[in-house]
Every structure is written in C-alpha cells, then in structure tokens.
Amino acid sequence: MTASDPQSQLIDPAVKGTLNVLRSCVKVPSIKRVIITSSTASVMFNGKTLSPDVVIDETWFSDPISCEKLKTLAEEAAWKFAEGNNIDLVAINPGLVIGPLIQPTFGFSLETFLKFVKDAGTEVFPDGICILVDIRDVANAHIQAFEIPAASGRYCINAEVIHYFEVFKILHGLYPTFNLLEKCEDDKPLLPAYKISQDKAKILGISFVPLEVNLRDTMESFKDYGFLTI
C-alpha cells in the first residue's frame, strides 16, 4: 500500500473505522461477540529474528513503528476498546489471502499475487518468505470463531510459510507452459522460512486447503475472470 500521507490516508481511516464499528456494536444489546479481520502483519514484526527455529504465535504483537503500522494500530485500538466496553472480541489474523474469486474485483492480497504471476517474463521473484492461506479457510475461521462459545483472543490463520521459490516451483509444475517467474532476485542462499503456530487454528477445527489446490484454484479463477490466459 502506498499513500502520499500514510497517517491521514491509511492509518487514521483504519483505526477510526474499526472503532466506529465497535461503537455501533456496543449500542446493540443483542450483539454478543464481534469478529474482526486483522492480519499476520500485526503479529510478527516486533524486532525478533525470524529464523527456522522460531515459532510465531498469537502472543506476538508487531511493533507499531514498523511498516505494518496500519494493521497493528487498528487491532490494538480494537482490543483496548473491547476491554473498556465489555465486548467479547475475537481477531482473525491471516497472511496473504488467495483462492477462488466470487466476483471480478479483488483486494490487496490477490492483487499482489496476480502481479507475481502476470506478465512476468523478464522479472525475478524476491528472496523472501510468503505466508499463504486460502480464502475458504479464512471464511471458515470467522464462522467457527463466531459459533464456538469458547473461542477467544487471536487466531493466526495461515496454511503455509514458504519461500517464493517453492511457490513458483509448484506453479511451474501446474502450468509448465505459462510464462512464470524463474529466477530469484539474487544468487545468495535462499532465505530460510520460520514457522507460525497453527495450534489455535486447530482448536477452531480448521483443516487447511492444501497449497497446491489453493494455487491451482486461484490461477483457474484468474483465468475464468479474464485476468490470465493460461
């Protein structure tokens, strides 16, 4: 996300919008629980080294001075308001959400993913880690968080923490003739992946869609809506 004035164009609307919704919920006695969609970005960027032996979980909070400021501050504001107004709040924290489209428009995650796979003949993929989850799993997590009485707190909903190299390796296997990214941005050893705990997600009964299925369904959906010619 880019903006000439991030504070007024991104951060303030995110925080104020979240609080406006919660204030409205407080006014309705029949509302017993509120589920908010947050992000893994508000969990994992707190200055700790991310290495293969690190397991990120729901107790982590991102440092609000980082580039993930928008998501972090919005979620922090929600928790503070909920505690002060006796709201039963549950947060769903997904990574990059992809999967089949239900309409010909999409948000930041799918737009980001489409840029990686479209018109990429001379491009290179980043030496970085991709946190992927299927939209169907994210939707199910919201439903379960609402319906399971014992659900509480935050839930990291992420199927895979994987290097971009592995993502494109799978895509090349699925679509060998499609013009996909083939080279990393540098010749250094690939950045090792860390881990994100799925323990709380399992409590919700989430059984993640396999990555290959998610990637295939995403690509086929792009094709069906005319965003890709495969």
From TrEMBL:
<comment type="similarity">
    <text>Belongs to the NAD(P)-dependent epimerase/dehydratase family. Dihydroflavonol-4-reductase subfamily.</text>
</comment>
<dbReference type="InterPro" id="IPR050425">
    <property type="entry name" value="NAD(P)_dehydrat-like"/>
</dbReference>
<keyword id="KW-0560">Oxidoreductase</keyword>
<keyword id="KW-0521">NADP</keyword>
<protein>
    <recommendedName>
        <fullName>NAD-dependent epimerase/dehydratase domain-containing protein</fullName>
    </recommendedName>
</protein>
<dbReference type="InterPro" id="IPR036291">
    <property type="entry name" value="NAD(P)-bd_dom_sf"/>
</dbReference>
<dbReference type="GO" id="GO:0016616">
    <property type="term" value="F:oxidoreductase activity, acting on the CH-OH group of donors, NAD or NADP as acceptor"/>
</dbReference>
